[in-house]
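seq as requested:
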Amino acid sequence: MNDFQNFSAISRALIVIAAIAIILSFLHAVASIVSVTLLAAFIAVIVTSPLNWLLRKRVPKWLAMGVIIFVLFEGGSLLALIFTGQLEGFRHGLPGYQERLILLSNQFGTWLENIGVDKGPEAVKDIFNPALPITLVRLALSKMSETVRTGLLVLLIVIFMLLEAGGLPAKLRMAFHLTGEAEDRLGRLSGVIRRYTTIKTLASLATAICIWVWLWILGIDFAVLWAILAFLLNFIPFVGAILMMIPAVLMALVQTDLSTTLLVVLGYLVVNTVIGSFLETRMMGKELGISTLAVLLSLLFWGWVLGTVGVFLAVPLTMSLIIALDSSPQTRPIAILLGPEVTEKPKPQAQTPAVGVATDHSQGPLLEKGAE
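C-alpha cells:
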C-alpha cells in the first residue's frame, strides 16, 4: 500500500483504471456464470423475508426451508407451463394474425402513398415484417428448455445460499476482520437490496394483474401471456414500460379496431403511471433513489457486462455500487453524482453589526473587535 502511494496521482489513476478494465473484461467473459449467481443471490434476498417470518413464528428451520423451496419450485414450474402453453396457442393462431397484419400494413402503405410519401408501402413492409412474429415465437419456444435448465440451476444455488445465510455474518467477520462500521455498511446494503427487490416484485405483480384484468375486459387474446411479459419487463426501468406495451397493442390492432387499441394503450399508461411512477416511487423513498441518467447508463453498462440478466439487475447492482462508493471519502463524490437529486441548503448571510452595538461572544473575535 505504501509503495502504491509513492506513485504520482496520474500513475495511481492509470493503475486503478487498468485494474477496473481487467475486472470488467473478466466479468464479461464469464457473464454466463456470474449472471446466474447474481440472479440466485437476488432471489435469495427476496425469499429471506418470508423465511425469517416463518422462523419468527417458531416454525422449524427444515420445515420453513421446505416450504420456501416448494413454493419456488412449484411457482416457477407453473409460470413456465402457463408461458409455454400461451406461446403454443399464439403460434397456432399466427397465420390468421399474420394475414391481418399484412392487410393493415398494405392499407397503411397505400394511405402514406396517397398523402404524398414516396415509397410508403416499401417502408411499411420493412417495419411490419410479417415473418418477424413467427421468428420470435419459434426462438422463444426453442429457448424454453435452456431456460428450464437455467432455472433449476438458479433454484439449486438459492437453496445452498439460504442454508449458508445463517452463518455468513460470522464467516465474514472472521475472514475479513470486519469492524462494526463495516458490518453496519453490509447490513445497510443487504437491507436496501431486500427492500428494493421486495417492492419491485410486488409492484411488478400488481402491474401484471392489472394488465391481465384490463386486457381480459377488452377481450384481447392471450391476456395471460402479455401479463407475464409485463411482470418480467417491469423490472427494467423506463424501457420495460414501453416494451411490455408493444405486443399487446399489436395484438389489439390485428384483432380489434382502433378504438379498442387506444383503450389498451390508455390502460398501460394508467397502470404504469399509478403503480410505477406514484406508488412504487413513494414506497421506495429517497434512500433507494438513483438519478435518471445513472439508471439509463446502468442499463447499458450492466447489459454489456452481464447480458440480459444485467439489464434486469441494473438498478440493484448500481445501488450496491453507490453504497460501496459512499463508504470512502475518496469515492463519495461519485456516489453523490449517481444518487438522487439533492437540494443545497441556502447559506446564511453574515450580517455586520453597527459600530457601538454590543455583539454576542459566539459571533467571533472579529465582530467583537469591530464593536469596540
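The longest helix spans residues 180-218.
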